[in-house]
Amino acid sequence: MSNSKNKWLIPLAFTNIYVIWGITFLAISFGLKGFPPFILSGLRFLVAGILMIGYLLSKGERANSMINWKKNAITGILILTGGTGLVAWGEQYVTASEAAISIATGPFWFIAIDKKNWKYYFSDKFIPLGLVIGFAGLVLFLKGSVNSNAHAVTDGNLRITAFIVLGLSSIAWVLGSLYSKKNPASQSTFMNIAQQLIVAGSASFIIAFFRKEWTDFSVAAVPLSAWFGVLFLIFFGSIIAYLSYIWLLSVKPAALVSTHTYINPIVTVIAGWIVANQSINGGQLYGLFIILLGVLLTNVTKYFRLSKRSKVKIRRVKRFLNRTGRGYQPI
Prior knowledge:
Order of helices and strands: HHHHHHHHHHHHHH
Radius of gyration: 22 Å
Number of domains: 1
Pfam families: EamA (PF00892)
GO cellular component, one term: membrane
InterPro entries: AA-Vitamin_Transporters, EamA_dom, EmrE-like
Strand content: under 5%
Distance between the termini: 57 Å
Shape: globular
């Protein structure tokens, strides 16, 4: 892909993961007006996966490696069924904004679980500081959420359980990401995504069966707003944004791409306020800013780390200044 194309594709891809994934939390809340959580997740993943694999097969790509299917099955179940499916369950009892903010703690789980790199993580003074600040922000946010009157009709214990489940969804996402990184499948990224979506959708439908979600479900009773939510999740959330995310990881540093974690909650809060009249109280707002500050600190060194070429240039400038500055040293 040429540099001229990259110039407009990169900002477009960042816009996709910033805005679309932020709105996705709101789309889930609309989908839940007509679909139980795991039927909703199964539908969005399976349809998106079938559309993608159908296109790839028509172009001559093969999907007959059982090893690749196995690897993508594990990744898909952890990241999509667990990571995103549990979000849909949690949004039955919390707002889209609350769910998005809870997911913003994902980078903390990544550092906690990735034991192999603990020595690197904790050699950076900003990372432990960011973890402490982020945890304090999470406590403040959860306190503001539990005390919120926005869900007075929802049992307080259910809301607490929902926040715990949202935390588990972040852990599942991180476990899937680490597994995928250590056990990459040997085929195109697009085929990997298609297989992950198909397996995740099938697993979600199976969970829906055991939870008896199909028992009282009626397609005829699904309102139009829920169908719009599902369509958005299929085409924008599971295809466009996910593909943008995977492509960006191949052309930009992962630390830079991960900034969507900080922007998504802000987009969700704004979209929820405009579209669904969802509100956020002072305690939750303070918690949000503190969480974002903590996550930023855990990654600040990555953002400002200089490349080898930049370091060489800086050393050359220093040597030049030292040579030209002789005789002007302070006494």
